[in-house]
Every structure is written in structure tokens, then in C-alpha cells.
Design brief:
The chain contains four helices and no strands. By secondary structure, it is mainly alpha-helical.
Amino acid sequence: MVSNLCLGIFSVFDKPYGILQMFTFLTIPILAKYNGKRGEWKGMKWLFYFYYPVHLFVIGIVRILLHGNISTIF
């Protein structure tokens, strides 16, 4: 069913987005390794507290470099 949706997106709407959606199946092996338990490393919490805002900042800088300082549309 998901592959049909991806092919529909690819053929009708946006080809790059459709291709991206076709590769989402690559996450299945990673998700299959989840054993239902929390991770043991306590530093993971702080890693993500740091990673999340930093990656948004980097993505924002790349957007400004590629497209200029465009406003956000709501």
C-alpha cells in the first residue's frame, strides 16, 4: 500500500519527493532492532538536547545561503 502511494506521488505530483518516499523502507531494519526497552546510556538525553537546536540552526543557515533571507509562510 505504501509503495502504491509513493508511486502515485511520484507519477502525479512531485518526482523528487516521490523518490524520497520510496526510500523510506530503508528504516525498517533499524526499527526492527528496537527491543521495547529504553537505552542504557544516560548521556543520550543531553546529546539530543544539544543536537536538535544545532541541526535546526545549521538547516536555517543552509536555507539562507541557498535562497536568501526569505520569510516563513503560515
